[in-house]
Q: What sequence folds into this?
């Protein structure tokens, strides 16, 4: 059943349309990640959800109740801010108690619920610490505890990991995911990092220019992107201009720089010019061979089990390819072929109007 | 009406209030200076141009101010380098003592100089005795005396600004200069001084404006030497109100031109200066002889700077009429202080100054707070104009404002926004309020700018309404800024002399005017006792403000 529903949300700031007719449905207990580059409207969407902004059009519904015009004070949505916005003049306990006091909780019950919230984020006994004494990661957990303590209906997270050291991010990501699962609260988070969105979101909504490009599970977005924006924004890929020649039992035949490739696992496409978006693992490197797409390795990056090679073809296109770590060196000539198991790593988007 | 519309309306209300308090009186002065009984006239301008006195006074104001800048820089900048760059015994305490002239309200500093270097001052009499002269070795009068007082009280601006500038230098910049082969002088000339320009420009502007507006020193020591501020008050006492207005306009023009010429400098921002990187380490003075010389010079300087304060304290214990020609007073008593409390006539100015200062400070804080909410937080339309209006009184000499307010509020014409306030209780707090708006709002607006707006939003998502957010989040976080702004306003209002001398009535006479009348009656002990009270209150409030202001 849909728990939280955004219906045709539109918000304009002066000349710019920040959010343009956005509709989304979020299930109870689901974690939805809003992913997009800066200026995509994801932060405005979060602020519309929190009630800091009122949409020009559209509605926000929680369990069928229209809360579009309910101010943030009455909305009972918890929020963790990008820079945490902990009250620096209050100690940890007073910060966590702040929202509970708004609900009229006091005395022993207040203390108990503060302690419970702190235990939840693994900071039991931190009540009397000053905010300035905490590390960045601890501050983030206090911000979570503070948002969760009054038991809000929805939890909103604004770029929850952007303020942490890269070395802390992955661990914190796991902790947040585990914690939110345990609480079971419906959560919307905003991020511009695809890793974060894929790791935290049950589903990911990709936004561009205030519009929803695609919403789906991380697997859906990766394997069947709805358009070239999603294909290029989600995961590593290279874009290559090709001509689709036709399809048959051998798959789809395309022409890449005067070379013809037969692609077996690819979306059907009508003949004509198209953009081919290719994941690095859907290609492989070979010794230079006549009649193959050939180029020069310009860069090799070691990523662990494999290396990522950048190859500039004779036609001047830069393509990323995964290969065995030490197979070739920068400056060497190689040929590129589609992998035998492309596994949904190649997508064709016909060029409009031709 | 939408919420946004209501907030913009509040912005308009504030804008109108400020325009009425600040711009309107100044405009009235401008208008009335050009209006005679038969309508518009240039008679008063002609009168102004014809009198040699007027030109002399304007010129006097100008060159005294320029000379004050040069003198203050010549004292303040080397001191700042000495205390900012070198380490020697007693540096800490001396560095602190050097800022002491700041706690002397202008009039109090002037009378302290009178007791020290005046005709029958300690130093004059002492030298007279030592050298066996018939009279005092000098006369403390004219431009020289004014410059002496200005140099003493205003080098502090250069000292503090330069020290702040030096402290915000990044050591790696100096190291970079050294690694590029620049010697000590080249580094100073090409790197350090250019980086200090904003601070020096700010100090120069502040010194120039302060001495252009200076009233106490020329009033007491001027003698035949004229400057515009004293000229305005004298003309007004003569009853030539409209000539006084033309004079007022001319002084305002000089102030505005100076402000425009130095428009690139930000006098108050540098003092707080943020720091990137590490500050340069102080150079420890190695040579024993140099250390000795620095120590002696330093302590000698400290004594020189502290002499006015000490003199004031000493004189405040002198009984009436007991001290005539002796270098040191022959008798001492607590009487002067007791009089201030016991004699209702003497106690009245203390109480007056207290309530006037409190009332104007509360009002200034309230207006500055409203301005902070509306301009920084709500970003209303016209916020730039509101901030400009709040800063404007800073550029206008106090005498000018006094005349402007006296002009605006001497007529009852409610439709034109004019009421008779002159001669009532309300004119002085109003004048203090207008004069204090720049410093108070500067501190409080800066506080608002440092507040993270997401703290308010966080409070809202936690279910706190507007009042609870204000009480639990906004006010506690703004407290340092409010305390700093309020303490500056209170100290200025408590010791005010410039505006009071134009606007006071017998019932509202503040401490400064009582000091003046005690001096006239040769009751130096009581005058000094008032001075000590002013000095002590200023010092305590400053210390409180600095303590709280730095985040305690």
A:
């Amino acid at each position: 059943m849909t728990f939280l529903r955004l219906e045709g949300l539109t918000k304009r700031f002066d000349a710019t349309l920040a959010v343009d007719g956005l509709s989304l449905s979020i299930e109870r207990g689901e974690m939805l990640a809003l992913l997009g580059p800066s200026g995509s409207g994801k932060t405005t969407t979060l602020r519309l959800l929190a009630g800091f902004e009122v949409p020009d059009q559209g509605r926000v519904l929680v369990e069928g109740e229209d809360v579009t015009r309910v101010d943030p004070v009455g909305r009972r949505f918890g929020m963790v801010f990008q820079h945490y916005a902990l009250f620096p003049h209050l100690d940890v306990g007073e910060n966590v108690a702040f929202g509970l006091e708004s609900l009229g909780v006091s005395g022993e019950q207040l203390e108990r619920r503060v302690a419970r919230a702190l235990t939840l984020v693994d900071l039991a006994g931190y009540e009397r610490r000053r905010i300035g004494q905490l590390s960045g990661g601890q501050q983030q957990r206090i911000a979570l505890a503070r948002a969760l303590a009054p038991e809000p209906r929805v939890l909103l997270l604004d770029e929850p990991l952007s303020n942490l050291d890269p070395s802390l991010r992955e661990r914190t990501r796991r902790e947040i995911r585990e914690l939110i699962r345990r609480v079971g609260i419906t959560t919307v988070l905003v991020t511009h990092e695809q890793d974060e969105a894929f790791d935290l979101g049950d589903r990911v909504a990709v936004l561009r220019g205030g519009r929803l490009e695609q919403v789906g599970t991380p697997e859906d977005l990766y394997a069947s992107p709805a358009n070239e924006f999603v294909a290029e924004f989600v995961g590593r890929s290279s874009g290559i201009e090709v001509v689709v020649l036709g399809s048959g039992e051998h798959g789809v035949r395309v022409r890449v720089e005067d070379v013809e490739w037969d692609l077996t696992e690819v979306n059907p496409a009508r003949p004509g010019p198209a953009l081919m978006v290719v994941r690095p693992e859907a290609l492989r490197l070979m010794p230079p061979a006549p009649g193959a797409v050939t180029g020069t390795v310009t860069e090799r990056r070691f990523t662990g089990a494999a290396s990522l090679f950048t190859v500039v073809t004779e036609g001047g296109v830069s393509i990323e390819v995964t290969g065995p770590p030490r197979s070739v060196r920068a400056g060497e000539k190689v040929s590129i072929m589609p992998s035998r198991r492309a596994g949904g790593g190649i997508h064709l988007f016909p060029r409009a109007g031709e | 009406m939408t919420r946004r519309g209501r907030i913009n309306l509040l912005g308009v209300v504030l804008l109108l209030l400020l325009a009425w308090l600040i711009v309107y009186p100044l405009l009235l002065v401008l208008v009335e200076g050009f209006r005679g009984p038969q309508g518009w006239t240039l008679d008063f301008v002609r009168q102004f141009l014809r009198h040699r006195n007027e030109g002399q006074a304007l010129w006097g104001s100008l060159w005294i101010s320029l000379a004050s800048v040069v003198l203050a820089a010549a004292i303040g900048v080397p001191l700042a380098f000495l205390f900012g760059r070198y380490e020697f015994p007693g540096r800490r305490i001396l560095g602190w003592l050097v800022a002491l002239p700041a706690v002397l309200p202008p009039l109090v500093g002037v009378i302290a100089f009178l007791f020290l270097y005046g005709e029958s001052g300690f130093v004059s009499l002492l030298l007279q005795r030592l050298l066996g002269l018939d009279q005092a070795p000098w006369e403390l009068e004219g431009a020289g005396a004014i410059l002496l007082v200005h140099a003493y009280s205003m080098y502090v601006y250069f000292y503090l600004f330069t020290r702040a500038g030096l402290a915000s230098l990044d050591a790696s910049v100096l190291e970079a200069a050294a690694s590029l082969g620049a010697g000590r002088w080249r580094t100073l000339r090409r790197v350090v001084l250019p980086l200090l320009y904003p601070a020096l420009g700010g100090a120069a502007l502040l010194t120039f404006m302060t001495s252009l507006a200076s009233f106490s020193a020329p009033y007491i020591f001027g003698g035949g030497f004229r400057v515009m501020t004293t000229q305005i008050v004298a003309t007004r006492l003569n009853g030539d109100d409209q000539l006084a207005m033309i004079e007022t306009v001319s002084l305002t023009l000089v102030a505005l031109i100076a402000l425009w010429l130095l428009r690139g400098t930000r006098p108050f921002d540098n003092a707080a200066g943020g720091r990137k990187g590490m500050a340069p380490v102080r150079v420890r003075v190695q040579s024993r002889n140099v250390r000795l010389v620095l120590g002696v010079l330093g302590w000698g300087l400290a004594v020189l700077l502290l002499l006015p304060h000490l003199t004031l304290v000493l004189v405040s214990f002198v009984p009436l009429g007991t001290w005539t020609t002796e270098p040191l007073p022959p008798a001492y008593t607590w009487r002067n202080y007791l009089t201030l409390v016991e004699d209702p006539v003497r106690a009245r100015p203390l109480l007056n100054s207290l309530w006037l200062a409190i009332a104007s400070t509360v009002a200034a804080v309230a207006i500055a707070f409203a301005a902070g909410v509306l301009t920084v937080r709500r970003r209303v339309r016209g916020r730039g104009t509101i901030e400009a209006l709040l800063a404007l009184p800073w550029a206008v000499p106090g005498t000018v404002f006094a005349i402007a307010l006296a002009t605006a509020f001497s007529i009852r014409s409610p439709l034109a926004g004019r009421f008779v306030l002159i001669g009532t209780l309300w004119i002085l707090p109003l004048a203090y309020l207008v004069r204090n708006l720049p410093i108070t709002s500067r501190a409080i607006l800066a506080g608002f700018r440092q507040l993270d707006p997401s703290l308010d939003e966080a409070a809202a998502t936690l279910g706190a309404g507007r009042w609870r957010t204000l009480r639990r989040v906004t006010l506690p976080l703004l407290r340092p800024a409010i305390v700093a702004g309020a303490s500056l306003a209170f100290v200025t209002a408590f010791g005010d002399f410039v505006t009071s001398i134009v606007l006071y009535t017998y019932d509202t006479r503040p401490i400064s005017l009582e000091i003046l009348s005690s001096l006239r009656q040769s009751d130096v002990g009581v005058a000094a006792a008032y001075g000590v009270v002013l000095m002590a209150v200023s010092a305590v409030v400053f210390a409180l403000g600095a303590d709280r202001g730095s985040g305690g």
Notes: Chain A touches chain B through 30 residues (CB under 8 Å). Chain A has a mean pLDDT of 90. Residues 282 and 341 of chain A are 7 Å apart (CA to CA).
